[in-house]
Amino acid sequence: MSALAQDNLSISPKSLQQFNEETLQDEDSNSEMYPAAPISLIKKKISKPDSQKQKKSERQNNQIKRVIFGVNSINNYLSIEQYTSFFDLSIQKLVPSQKLFFLAGDMIAEMKGVENEDRIQLYKYHRNHIYIEKTKKGVSFEIESFRPLKDFSQPIYYLENLQDKDSYEFAQYLKKHQQVIFKISSQLQEIQNFYLNGIEDLQYIIKERSEFIKEQRRKLIEEFCSDDDFCLVTTESLSFENQTKSISNRFMSKPLIALVGGNYDDTCYEFLKYGSLKVLDENTRNKMDEFCIKATQEGFDQYELQIDDFQLNTIDNIKITCKTRIRRFNINYPKHLQFQYFPDLNKIEKFILVHHEINFKIIQDVLKIRQQMAANAPQNQPFPHNYDYNGFIDYDKFQQSMQSQIFLEKFYQKEMDDLNKQIDQPQQSSSSQQTIQLNTQ
Predict the structure, then answer these.
(1) Full-prediction pTM beyond 0.85?
(2) Contact (CB, 8 A) for 9 and 78
(3) Of 147, 9, 143, 137, nearest in space to 70 by CA
(4) Which of 78, 91, 278, 337 could cross-link to 274 by cystine, CB 3.0-4.6 Å?
């Protein structure tokens, strides 16, 4: 037996003593239920054993005992159910049975070997878009979450044992986040119990707070997002249904929608389909999550982070590396909308403003790649290469990419004109190659 199995199946002297006492009690109870047979009847049924055969049998038994002593000493004191459960627990600890976790606070923990389709299915299972609101500056998605995991012990254990530095560090941040989630859940339960007494209408307060958030978000977008900015504004609010905090709204500016391959007129179908799982890679999401956890722990009204190598993925598989500025703004409620006896909960809800620094060179490179993709598309090839092209491409994704191309060309006409003048020059600068690349995987 392996050393691992021996460690997991070790029995303390105290456990052995307890087992022996229970065994003796069982034997006593059995003797009361079944009276002993007369000795004379037992003697008649026992024949005198052969001495040579008996010695041979004893030698064989002693040899077997010496060989399997380690296993035998354990099996004597474990039932089959206990023996099996010990091994099952050991295997579960070594091999993750689940590779993706949707955590309270709308965070995602993932193990190695996760496919993008798995992320999409997770997003569909735990998220629902309630409604979409178009404004003059972009699109706002109202979101609700379902069945988030509040106990992080399992993903933390798996992340710590991946033997990967980034995964281990992310697990330490999750431990801090776990404390925040437990505290929020406990206080939300206390609030609900408090308002059951009929002192005030909890639903009225929740509704008024929701309207206040909506108005504050509008003002923040008006102040910090100009018409040509590549902005994302995330609203994180309390969820009484899940008794935790969650993302309740995402706003994307028109330029950002076009850059990632969405179409403003068609309400960003691909973004609804993939969510942030497609636009942001795992490392970028982890950095943002760690930023939010740290900001919550330190309790500042405003908190700022700059990432120089932020990776933004478009829906048509273009990777863009750019500088990104992330700012956190607490939602400060007026006194009549605050929870009077639970002041900590008044500081949980916040806006997260993400501003991508996309220069004209990046836009030109994206436009050029999409032009090449359009020219090389099967339906634009001469016969017979254009025959039955629908079977070889994702037509919806291609249409989205072309619509975003039209929007970018209209929005950045001057840059497009400069690009057309250089269209015959195939080479690109080294800095451009480091910034833009087409992901063919």
Answers:
(1) no
(2) yes
(3) 9
(4) 278
Confirm if 276 and 217 have CB atoms less than 8 A apart.
Answer: no
Distance in angstroms (rounded) separating the CA atoms of residues 10 and 83:
11
Phi-psi region for residue 110, left (φ > 0), alpha (ψ -120 to 50) or beta? beta
Three-class DSSP category at 242:
coil
| DSSP 3-state of 89 | helix
Q: How far is CA 208 from the centre of its chain?
A: 31
**Domain locations in the chain?**
1-10+58-95, 100-358, 363-438
Residues 367 and 423: their CA atoms lie apart, in Å, by 11
Within 164-224, where are the H helices? Answer: 165-195, 202-224
Alpha carbon distance 213, 84 (integer Å):
54
Which of 212, 226, 272 minimizes the C-alpha distance to 400? 272
Which region among 125-129, 155-159, 266-270, 334-338 has the lowest average model confidence (pLDDT)? 266-270
DSSP 284-344: HHHHHHHHHHHHHHHT-SEEEEEEEEEEEE-TTSEEEEEEEEEEEEE----GGGS-TT-GG
Provide the CATH topology of domain 100-358. Beta-Lactamase (3.30.450)
The number of C-alpha atoms within 13 Å of 63 and in the hemisphere containing its C-beta is 6
Nearest CA to 223 out of 332, 359, 355, 133 is that of 355
